[in-house]
Design a protein that fits this description.
The structure is a homodimer of 360-residue chains. Chain A is of the alpha/beta class. Chain A is built from twelve helices and 14 strands. In chain A, strands 2-1-3-12-11-4-5-10-8-9 form a ten-stranded mixed sheet, with helices on both faces. The first copy, chain A, has a two-stranded antiparallel ribbon with strand order 6-7. In chain A, α1 crosses α10 (299-311), α8 runs parallel beside α9 (247-261) and α10 (299-311) runs antiparallel to α11 (316-331). The longest helix of chain A is centred in the first third of the chain and has 19 residues, at 15-33. Chain A is globular. Chain A starts with a strand and ends with a helix. Chains A and B meet through α4, β7, α6, α7 and α8 of A and α4, β7, α6, α7 and α8 of B. Bound molecules: 3-isopropylmalic acid (2 copies). One 3-isopropylmalic acid sits between chains A (90-91, 94-95, 251) and B (196-197, 227).
C-alpha cells in the first residue's frame, strides 16, 4: 500500500500545538483511505536558531530532501526579532526553503465560509454569502531573488537597489498553473501587474496572454493593475476567482485577501515545485502572544494537510474528507476564541481537533 | 497684491466639467482673500493626443513651466486605450510630468467624513466615526524610474527587468516631509517597506530611522512591511496618521486607502517639488462613463484647489475656507449621485459647485 514520507516542521509559537492536531487528522484519514505515512520531525525558525544557531539548519534541509512533502507550522517571535536579517526565522528559513526546493508556485485560497461572513471586515452587503479567491503567486522569482541587489556609493549619493526580473520560462510555468486551477473553479483568471509602468510587467502580461490564447482560450482572462486590484478586492471580492500574481504583488494581495476573510486561522497555503514536492503551511503567523495556551485555531494547519494530500500525494478523496469535516465543524458552531461569538460553541485547540476527527 | 500663475489642465472625461466648478471656487476665494490668479488653459491626456498627437505636448509643458502651479483634472478613456504605452494618457502624461517638474512628494489624504461613513466598504464598527490617513508617497524614484530596465535574451530564457533603487538623498527628503506633516496632525508616522526581503527597503528603513532619531525624536515611528500594512489598514484604519511610502508601495496603499473611504470623488492629491511648485489633482479617474452628464462629483477637484493654495501659495486661510465649505455642504446633506442615499439632497456637478460657493 502507499506510503508517504513527510518532513514535519512545527516551528515556533503556536506551530507545535496546531501541528499536533493536524497530525492526528492526517493519521485518521490515512487509516480511513488506506495509505501510510512516515514522519520525520525537524526544527525550523527560532527554535532551530536556538538549537543550531541557524533558522534553517543543514539537518532540516536533509530531512526535507528525504521527504515527499514538508508540513510546515509557523516561525518567528519577539525572541528572535533583533537577529541579523539572514538569521531571522521568517526570512532566514522561508526564503531559502523556497529557493532550495524550487517552490515556484504558491497557492493561497481566501475563502469566507457562509457562517463566518460576520467576521469579515467588509460591509455585509459586499460580503454577501462569502467569497472564494484562489491566489496563484509566483514564489521564486521577481524582485525577491533578482540579481544584482546591493548598496553602492556614499554620502547623499549612496544607493540601495534590487532587480525586478522574470524569465519567459518562469511566467509561462506559473500562468499555466493558474489557468489549470481556474478550470476546476469558475473559469476566470485575473492577472495582476503594473504594465503601465514596469517593463517586467509588460513582459508578464504579454506572456500570460500568449499562454491564454494558445492553450486556455476558454478561460476568461482579465488584466488588472496591482493598485486597481487592491481597490477592486474591497468593492467586489465576489467577482474574483483565480488571481495570478508575480511574487511581490502576490505577497501584498494575498495578505489583503486573507484579512478580508476575517478568519486568518482558517487559511492554508501550498508552495509547490515542478513534479509533486510541496511545502504546506498555514497563512497566519506564529502568534507568540497566544502560544502554549491551547487556544490557537488549528484549522489552517489541518487544511494545509488537505492541500498536501491533494497536490503532493494526489489523495483527492482524503483531502476532500478533511475539508468537508472542517465545513461540518463550522456549520455545527465549533469556534476557537478569535472568531467565537455569543451562541457558538467555544473550543480550544485540542477540542477543535476532536471535533474534526468526529466529523471525518 | 499677490498674483498667482496657474496652468489649468482639465484633461479628459469628467475633467473639464469638475474643473469648471473648481475654478469658480478658486475665483471666489481669490476675491475674498485678496489675491488674484492668472490662468493659462492647456490640453493634456487623450484630448492632447487628439490635438497634438501626444498626451503631453511641448506647448503644455511650456504652460506648466511658466506657471506657479498646475491644476490638473484627469486623463484617459476607452478611446485611447489601445495606443502604444508611451502615448497613453495616464502613462504618457503623468509620469513625464512628475519627472519633468521633479514632483518628488505625493500627498494623498484619505479621509472619511463622519456623515459619509456609511459609504465606506468596511464594517461600521471598524470605521467608527471615520478615519483620516495622509499618505506621503515618494514619486520620482523607486522601480518606476530606476535604470536599467529592459528585455534581453530570447526563447525560454528571455527576461524582462526593472531596477528598484533609492538614493540616500531621495529617502531623506521624503522622510523629512512625512515627519513634518505628522507634526500638524497626530504625530505618528508609519513607514512602509519590505525590509525582510529587499535591500532597497533595508536602506530605506535605516535612513528613515536616522532622520527620525536625529531630527524628529518626538514623532512616533512605526515600521510596517507592506503586506502587513495592506492588512492592518482593513483592521484598524483609525490607528494610522501619516503613511510614509516608497513610490510602488505608495501606489498600491493609496488606492487601497482611497477605496476604504468609500468616497473617491472627495479625495484630492498634491504632487510637490522642492520649493513651492506643485501639481494638484483629484485622486479618482476620468470616469468616462459619466462624463458630460453633469453628475460628476466636483469636490475632489475643488479640494485640490485647497491643497494648491496651501502648498504652492501658502494661502492657508483660503485653503481652510474651501475645506470648511466642503464640510458644511456635506453636513447640510448635499450629495452627488455616487454617494447619494435616501434623505440626502441630490445635486449635480454645477449645483454642488453652487453649494460650496454659498458656504464660502
Ligand atoms: C516572511 C516573508 C519573507 C514572506 C514573503 O514576503 O514572501 C511572507 O510575507 C509570505 O508572504 O510568505
Ligand atoms: C497611471 C499610473 C502611472 C499612476 C502611478 O502608478 O503612479 C497612477 O496609478 C497613480 O497612482 O497616480
Amino acid at each position: 500500500s502507499k506510503n508517504y514520507k513527510i518532513a514535519v516542521l512545527p516551528g515556533d509559537g503556536i506551530g507545535p500545538e496546531v501541528m499536533k492536531e493536524a497530525v492526528r487528522v492526517l493519521d485518521a484519514v490515512a487509516e480511513k483511505f488506506g495509505f501510510s505515512t512516515e514522519k520525520e520531525w525537524a526544527d525550523v525558525g527560532g527554535i532551530a536558531y536556538d538549537h543550531f544557531k541557524h533558522p534553517l539548519p543543514e539537518s532540516t534541509l536533509k530531512t526535507g530532501e528525504a521527504a515527499d512533502a514538508i508540513l510546515f507550522g509557523s516561525v518567528g517571535g519577539p525572541k528572535w526579532e533583533s537577529l541579523p536579517p539572514n538569521l531571522q526565522p521568517e526570512r532566514g528559513a522561508l526564503l531559502p526553503l523556497r529557493k532550495h526546493f524550487k517552490l515556484f508556485c504558491n497557492l493561497r485560497p481566501a475563502k469566507v465560509y457562509k457562517e463566518l461572513a460576520p467576521a469579515c471586515p467588509l460591509r455585509a452587503d459586499i460580503v454577501g454569502d462569502g467569497f472564494n479567491i484562489l491566489t496563484v503567486r509566483e514564489l521564486t522569482g521577481d524582485v525577491y531573488f533578482g540579481q544584482p541587489k546591493g548598496r553602492e556609493g556614499s554620502g547623499k549619493d549612496e544607493i540601495g537597489y534590487d532587480t525586478m526580473k522574470y524569465s519567459r520560462y518562469e511566467v509561462e510555468r506559473i500562468a499555466r498553473f493558474a489557468f489549470e486551477a481556474a478550470k476546476g473553479r469558475r473559469n476566470k483568471v485575473a492577472s495582476i501587474d503594473k504594465a503601465n509602468v514596469l517593463t517586467t510587467s509588460v513582459f508578464w502580461r504579454e506572456i500570460v496572454k500568449e499562454i491564454h490564447d494558445n492553450e486556455f482560450p476558454e478561460i476568461e482572462l482579465e488584466n488588472l493593475y496591482v493598485d486597481n486590484a487592491a481597490m477592486q478586492l474591497l468593492r467586489r471580492p465576489r467577482d474574483f476567482d483565480v488571481l495570478l500574481c508575480p511574487n511581490l504583488f502576490g505577497d501584498i494581495l494575498t495578505d489583503e485577501c486573507a484579512m478580508l476573510t476575517g478568519s486568518m486561522g482558517l487559511l492554508p497555503s501550498a508552495s509547490i515545485a515542478e513534479g509533486s514536492f510541496g511545502l504546506y503551511e498555514p497563512a497566519g503567523g506564529s502568534a507568540p502572544d497566544i502560544a502554549g495556551k491551547g487556544i490557537a485555531n488549528p484549522l489552517a494547519q489541518i487544511l494545509s494537510v488537505a492541500l498536501m494530500l491533494r497536490y503532493s500525494f494526489k489523495e483527492e478523496e482524503a483531502a476532500k474528507a478533511i475539508e468537508t469535516a472542517v465545513e461540518k465543524a463550522i456549520s455545527a458552531g465549533y469556534r476557537t476564541g478569535e472568531i467565537w461569538k455569543e451562541g457558538d460553541k467555544k473550543v480550544g485547540t485540542t477540542a477543535m481537533g476532536d471535533a474534526i476527527l468526529s466529523f471525518l
